[in-house]
Structures are given as C-alpha cells and as structure tokens.
Write a structure and sequence with these properties.
By secondary structure, the chain is of the alpha+beta class. The protein is built from 18 helices and 16 strands. The strands form two sheets. Strands 7, 8, 9, 10, 11, 12, 13, 14, 15 and 16 form a ten-stranded mixed sheet that branches. Strands 1, 2, 3, 4, 5 and 6 form a six-stranded mixed sheet that branches. The longest helix has 21 residues.
C-alpha cells in the first residue's frame, strides 16, 4: 500500500495514523496510537466454538502495562469458551493479539480493538480452536501444493425494523439490487459498508437482496410484525485465515450497527416460506507466485481449478456439518430457491452447488467498448476468476467450514487426478459437470449425489468421513465429535416429511417455529 492510498476516505484509520499498511504493524506502532490518541482501553476479540466473536475489556493505566499486555496477551477460561469440549481441569488459554488486526473503535473514542489467537499452556497454538484449525489447514495446503488459497464470503442477512409509512412499498422476492425509495434500509447498509471497509479493507460491495417481508409473522417478540429487507455484503479475496476474521468482524459490526439503529439483523438461514434464505457463499481462488491461476490466458479453467472443484465435490456432503448447522438450513436447501440440493458444478448456473461465475476471463479493456473517447491504456490486471461454493448459510461455523474447504483442496492436490476407481479429483469434476437448470431435468438430477437433508444426516456423514478432516492432525477428534453431537441434538431427520404431512396452517406455524428459533445462534 502506498501513502497515496491513505488519502482515500475509507482507508484504514490506523494505517493513516501510522503511514504504513496493517501487515507491517508492530507492537511499538500500537503503543504509539495508544499514547497519541489517548486510548483508555484495549478490547481483545477471539472466536469461540459458537462462532461468535468474544470480548475482553482491558483498561490501560500506564505504558508498561500496555506493553506487557500487547507482548504477552491475557488468560481466558477455555472451558467456558469451548463448553462441552474442554475439561474444566485443563481450561486456561492465552489470547495473544495479532497486531495487523488492530482497529479503532467505530462506535466511540478511546478504545483500540485487536483480534487474538489462542495459545495453549505449552506456548503453541491450541489445536482445538477454530482459528488454529484453519491456520493448520492453510499451512498444510501451502506445504503440499506450493499454492496459496484465498477466499471471500457473501454475508447475507435480513434487516428487521418497525414498519414505516407505506410509501413506495417493495414487492415479495423482487428486492435484488433495489434502490431507494423502494428499499428503506439503504442508509443503514451505507453505515455497515463504511465501517467494515475501514476496518477490514476487504469489502467488494453491498446491495439489497431478493428477500422482502412486509410484516413478519412469528411468536418471537423481537421480530413479530417487523418489516424485513434482505441485504448482502460481499468481501474481497483474502488469505483464508484473514477472510475468516474479516467475516466474523463483519457479522459483529452488522449486528451492532443494526442495534444502534433500533433494528435486528439476523443471518439465520430462513425466516419465511417462499422467501429467499440467507446464504453464506464462499468464493475461492488459487495463487502461484502471487498470480491467480484459476483461469488460463484463454479464459478457460486450468487443470488446477478443476482439481479444486473435484475436491469440493468429494467433501461437499460432509462440509454441510460446518456450513449448515441448524434445522432451518435444510428448509433453505430446497429446489427452485437458488440453493443447491445436489452435488454438481456448472458455469454461471445458480442451481448448482459449485458455480464458476463471470470472472473477466478472456476479455480486456471492457470500459473502452462503452467509453470510445477514453485514451488511457488498459490496466495490467490479475485474473479475478473464482470458484463459488453455494451450500453454506448464515449458520456456518466460518473458521471450520473454511478449514474444511482448504482440506478438500489439499485432498485434491495430493491425490492422483485420475484414480483407478474413477474418483480422482479430475474425474469427479468431469462426471459432475452439468448445464442448465438441473431441477428441470429429472434424468440429470437422478444421476447426481445429493446433499444431506437434515442436521442429523449431516452429522452422521461427518462421522463416517471424519478421516478426511482428522488426517495430518488438522481437525482434532474432539472437535468432530462435538460438531456431530451438536447436529444430532437438532433431531430433525424426518423434519421435511413431518412438515409435509401437516395441514397448511399448522405447517406454516411449525416451519416458522423452526426458522425463528435460531435467530442469533452463530
């Protein structure tokens, strides 16, 4: 980042103060900000097993104390943060600040926030924490492939607020990229984008999404009768460890900004029948020597890209254990809602599990085609082509699902591309490619493997395929067991058939109960 970048209004305030990119922050830099800005408090943040960001508030009284805290971190109770997995007799963990993650409080003054990593009593990263599982997966992939995998997420959420005057009413399922005055939450979305961009530097864009409900019907007082508008914030690609932190911070900011505006923001997978659910799609790219190698010079997918797709196909059913963790997730994964139900991939096709979106591949100087007077030369660009996994939703355990995605890539690059039993990554990619809307072609649909249809089934598949995650010591067995128990507790294996057998009014009431019980679970 050059000093010119700091002139932009949404540049990282810490970088502007220190005149250096966040990646170069050191302890002395944070101490300088603390002293120069009159910082009174450090807020340490870290992600627990429930997928939510946690907070430790540390008042600062002198430089020596601040220096010690930044150098050595603090101690936390792991048995509370990882309840049900860590024994109380072995509960203490250190939380150590990652200096490049530091950001000034967006809601007030005199506070500096820092993302932390968990370190065990032996001084090494705690193997069972989500951040370290993801870091271990990423390190394994880099070692075995020589490549870097980056990811970006699409945070979809509903913004629920008191109904305003019925001027310019929106219509059901027509909110995609709608503008004011038909969408009323635009100013709140502006505030969300401004804060996430300044803190993470990784926002691609934001917009209104398809879903809209004029008046939510629910037994939950928090959302009963409220107007619901669906929004999306899409991020820019980052190394997977940073992508996970950016998404976790993004969810924290969205909830806080909604709260400060008298609204509720929920990422829950589904809030009404016939209304779009909240996905959390992940895009991936692969980098070699700093360049994206998903597409070749001709714009076509490279062999490495097709290996990645084959790996995602091999892991797809078990990945739902981390990406779809509540019962309502399986009310979203139904046909005709732009949500996948079968394991397949396609170009541009939103009914497929894995999609290859438009990526500016094979085209150049597009602006010149609509701006004929432009005299500037086309910018030298890297490929922006990505591969998108569309099954995860707002209930995803972000660090763990990204770790699973990385493990699928590692599997693909370590296995023979053409296996004798026909299940090599390239063979899977070849066999599971589809064209067109698969839900309209019963013959194709019948040949495709299916995703699980419940948390119970997803947990069972995870236990059957646990070796895919536990290999090389990346996912500890205790984490796999914990997630499988969490999924089994949903007890939803026959949910869809049970709902189908109810009278219409009873089905709607029971569906809403299932949808609304997890408004803020992760």
């Amino acid at each position: 980042m050059s000093s010119l970048d700091f002139a932009f209004a949404l540049a990282n305030p810490m970088s502007m103060i220190l005149d250096k990119p966040a990646a170069d922050f050191q302890r002395a830099d944070l101490l300088k900000v603390i002293e120069d800005k009159g910082i009174e408090r450090l807020n340490f943040h870290y992600t627990a097993l429930d997928g939510k960001i946690k907070e430790l508030k540390i008042p600062l009284t002198d430089r020596r104390q601040a220096d010690a805290i930044l150098a050595e971190g603090e101690r936390v109770d792991g048995s509370s943060l990882f309840k049900g997995m860590v024994d109380t007799g072995l509960s203490d963990l250190y939380v150590i600040p990652v200096y490049k993650s530091a950001f000034l409080d967006p809601f007030g003054e005199n506070c500096l926030h820092v993302i932390c990593r968990y370190i065990g009593a032996d001084g090494v990263p705690a193997s069972f924490t989500p951040d370290n599982i993801l870091a271990a997966a990423a390190a394994l992939f880099r070692k075995n492939s020589g490549l870097e995998i980056r990811a970006l997420g699409e945070l979809e959420f509903f913004l629920l607020r008191e109904k305003e005057m019925s001027l310019y009413p929106a219509q059901k399922q027509t909110g995609y990229h709608a503008a004011a005055p038909f969408i009323k939450g635009g100013p709140i979305l502006d505030e969300i984008l401004r804060n996430i961009a300044r803190i993470t530097g990784a926002v691609k864009y934001g917009h209104s999404e398809v879903g809209y409900i004029e008046s939510v019907r629910s037994d939950i007082p928090e959302i009963q009768g409220r107007q619901a508008e669906q929004m999306e914030v899409e991020f820019l690609p980052l190394p997977v460890e940073e992508a996970a932190d950016a998404l976790i911070v993004g969810r924290w900011l969205i909830r806080n900004i909604a709260f400060r505006n008298g609204c509720t923001a929920t990422f829950t997978p589904k809030i009404e029948e016939g209304v779009a659910g909240n996905g959390l799609h992940f895009h991936m790219d692969l980098r070699k020597n700093g360049r994206n190698i998903i597409a070749g010079p001709d714009g076509r997918l490279t062999e490495d890209a097709r290996k990645l797709i084959g790996g995602l196909c091999a892991y797809a059913d078990s990945l739902t254990a981390f990406g779809n963790t509540v019962s309502s997730a399986y009310l979203r994964l139904v046909p005709h809602q732009e949500a996948p139900t079968s394991i397949c991939w396609s170009d541009l096709n939103r009914s497929a599990l894995i999609r290859v979106p438009l990526g500016w591949s094979g085209v150049g100087d597009i602006a010149g085609k609509v701006n004929p007077r432009e005299k500037g030369t086309a910018i030298e660009k890297d490929s922006r082509q990505t591969i998108e996994l569309r099954s995860p939703d707002g209930s995803a355990l972000i660090h763990l699902v990204l770790a699973g995605i990385v493990m699928s890539a590692d599997w693909a690059f370590r296995n023979p591309p053409l296996a004798s039993e026909g299940n090599g990554p390239l063979e899977l990619a070849e066999r599971l490619y589809v064209k067109g809307n698969i839900h309209k072609n019963k013959e194709i649909l019948a040949k495709l493997p299916s995703l699980p249809s419940s948390c119970t089934a997803s947990g069972r598949i995870l236990l059957e395929k646990r070796g895919l995650y536990e290999r090389d010591g990346v996912f500890p067995p205790s984490v796999i067991d914990f997630v499988a128990r969490m999924l089994a507790a949903e007890d939803d294996e026959f949910m869809n058939s049970r709902l189908a057998g109810l009278p219409a009014d009873d089905r709607l009431h029971e569906s809403r109960r299932i949808m609304h019980k997890d408004l803020h679970k992760h």
